[in-house]
Amino acid sequence: MFKRILVLFLVLAFTPAVVAAEQITLNYANFPPASTFPCVQMERFKAEVEKRTDGQVQINTYPGGTLLGAKNMFRGIINGQADIGCLCMSYQPGVFPLTTAVELPVGFKTSRQASLVLWDLYQKYEPREFSRVKVLTMFATAPSNLMTNKPVKNLADMKGMQIRASGAASSVLELLGATPVSMPMSETPEALQKGMVKGVFSSLEVLQDLNFAAYCPYQTRLDLQVYPFAVVMNRDKWESLPPKVREVMDELGREQAEWTGEYMDGHVQKALAYAREKYGTEMFSLSPSQRELMFEKVEPLIGEWKEEAKKRDLEAEKILEDVYELRDKYAGR
Ligand code: DTR
Prior knowledge:
By secondary structure, the protein is an alpha/beta fold. It contains 12 helices and 11 strands.
């Protein structure tokens, strides 16, 4: 009898089911204002993780650079100043040589397409550039277009115009004859308000989310490169998580990339309607010959990227081939 009670006691004492799941709280830092798409996707990620872990994990979100800013996001996560952070690879030229392949003018049409290409590329190569963190998801913006305070109907109209961009987008503007002014999105509203820049080169949802329509009554459709983003987690923190929680987050990686792409594509359309209705903004398209000339002018970026990638021992040709192949695989939506 005594032996049986002892066995029962031991079984109960060591059964994990009777041990309450330990509560986990994570801090998630983001750099732009809460209204913008990187923060909307952050709230969606938080909600899904909390739901799928039955509340075991709780995520506190910090938009607007309140915990980490655009330029210290990566370092901050590596150092553990926040557990999770959202960063834009374009803001740190040279730091992410492989994943910035998606910045090249390869003709992405949507954010969904570019996001899935980026995610698959990351999964395939697991590049060294992210080895110090755990990557939770990645996504890319919709293609970049011009938003300006003066009409830009052809490439000549851009000549010498000070336009805000970042990373590879600055090189694009330079090749097209404009004067790029480089800064993260979080600093752009002030630069526009103070007239330090005459326009912005970005995906168009910021017409609404940051109310750029108020300063930029004209848009020119260029459909040039996208900006890649990553959501990364401190490695030690990741390794301290229970396997079940890690499974939930791993499962979310691709799904979150696609969700964000779809959200953004829809939101660009809404922002365009908002800008037209509220501010009567006008959109121009380049003529076919100007479009051709534009692609000719930005072509050198591909060769430059290849050279840089080779210096870092990356298989540049193969990576680029994959980008084109995946671009075609995810085209059409
Ligand atoms: N186009 C990039 C990335 C970007 C697009 N929309 C937002 C909103 C908030 C932050 C970044 C972005 C850029 O211009 O920085």
